[in-house]
Amino acid sequence: MHQYPDALSVVRALSPEEPVILNRPHAAARAARFFAEKFPGKSLYAVKANPSPDLLKVLWGAGVTHYDVASIAEVRLVRSVLPEAVLCFMHPVKSKGAIAEAYKVHGVRVFSLDSHEELAKIVEATDGATDLSLCVRLRVSSEFSELSLAAKFGIDLADAAPLLQATRQVADALGVCFHVGSQAMTPFAYVTAIERVRAAIVDAAVTVDIIDVGGGFPSIYPGMEPPPLEDYFGAIDRAAESLPVSYSSELWCEPGRALCAEYSSLVVKVEKGRGEELYINDGAYGALYDAAHVGWRFPVRCLTEGRSDVLTAFSFYGPTCDDADFMEGPFQLPADIQAGDYIEVGMLGAYGAAMKTAFNGFGQAEAIEVSDEPMASQYTGERQDPRAKDNVVSLR
Ligand SMILES: *Cc1c(COP(=O)(O)O)cnc(C)c1O
User: Fold this and answer.
1) What residues does each domain of the chain span?
2) Which phi and psi (to 5°) does residue 30 adopt?
């Protein structure tokens, strides 16, 4: 793969007609090392955030040995790319065929569940295996997160005790897992969820071997500046230490977004301008799914030189014929940006590059490696600690 220093040099060299994905392996490796070194337990990469084989190899090389997979296709993919990886099948609703293939063909021993039906399915599909690690998914609040994962999965605390007890009977290792929702904006999200885990454990009076705090670790986007990840790790560590099973249990997490958001950005071309709306060549059915469907704001910069320093708030239309292919933004760009100009959209490594479809004939995008820094980083230590604002002592 050809390597360029940055987006500007890509545009100068190629004047690309199609969107181009720019990958920054050094940024993903830095995130992976951060989790491997600083999270007080084991970090599983949640593959759905970005299943690119190139990225999987980067994470493996930087010390991520465990992978949270959610479908049999993800199991096969990660097994083929990383033959020695530990795979954890963490979707609480699986087909029997998927469980059997994962167990018998791909060596998967860790499964999650949130119902007695799923437990029976796992036992049957593995022929009553006695070497399973089974994680019961508890429903927790998503109130501190930008994207909820609370409605669909997880058993209610009130119903958890019988399921924990039944799972304990067949599991070699018993875990409790949850997901606080994606882009959790405060460490408190995990503290309250761990309090619910405590109640479930006490209620069921079982020993637990794994506490899995799931994903939800944030990245940095316009208008969404979370506290440093060290604060999350510290709060999780303290909350988990205070559980009645802390002396015997392992702590796990399942970061998706936080490990790969900084990995990719996207170069798009402006095809047309109409007032404060720009028609660009990627959108709702491409890498900008979240920008369209949940109004996510991504950082942008104009790659055409000589444009005005005065910025205007723009919205984007994507290339398909569908009115839903619209991204409200606001995206701050030079007031005189025009057709033929290029824009770099940053922080698209998570749930961006992975979401591209071929709807309406659009969806091709070349991937190119670049070596500059992502538009924002949780891992460079240059960010001001937001807590400092609360602690300022005036010298005057
Ligand atoms: C999506 C998902 C993750 C990753 O979530 P992020 O918010 O991207 O960190 C982790 N675990 C499970 C079970 C998931 O469904």
Assistant:
1) 3-22+261-370, 25-260
2) -65, -40
Residue whose C-alpha is closest to residue 17's, from 393, 342, 395, 279: 342
**SS3 state of residue 26:** helix
* Closest ligand 1 atom to 49 CA: 8
- Token reading at 52: 């690119």
CB distance 213 to 193 below 8 Å? yes
**Which amino acid is present at 232?**
Y
Identify any residues that bridge with 368 across adjacent strands, giving them in sequence order: 22
Low-confidence ranges of the chain (pLDDT < 50): 386-387, 389-396
- Tell me the CATH number of domain 25-260, given options 3.60.15.10, 3.30.1060.10, 3.40.50.2000, 3.20.20.10: 3.20.20.10
Residue 396: the pLDDT is: 33
pLDDT in tens, 185-207: 999 999 999 999 999 999 999 99
- Best CATH choice for the domain 3-22+261-370 from the list 2.40.37.10, 2.40.50.140, 2.60.40.1120, 1.10.3330.10: 2.40.37.10
- Residue of 69, 71, 254 to mutate, ligand 1, most atoms within 8 A of C-beta: 254
Express each pLDDT in 320-379 by its tens digit. 998 889 999 999 999 999 999 999 999 999 998 777 766 777 777 788 999 999 999 999
Q: Is the CB of 90 under 6 A from ligand 1?
A: yes
Q: What is the distance between the alpha carbons of residues 241 and 185, in angstroms, rounded to a whole number?
A: 22
Task: Quick: pLDDT tens for 119-148.
Answer: 999 999 999 999 999 999 999 988 888 888
What is the reported pLDDT for 382? 62
Residues 6+ apart with CB under 8 A from 103: 109, 125, 126, 129
Distance 217 CA to ligand 1 centre (A): 9
Strand 277-280 to 173-177 pairing:
unpaired
Q: What share of the chain is helix, strand, coil (3-state, %, to 5)?
A: 35, 25, 45
- pTM, 2 dp: 0.94
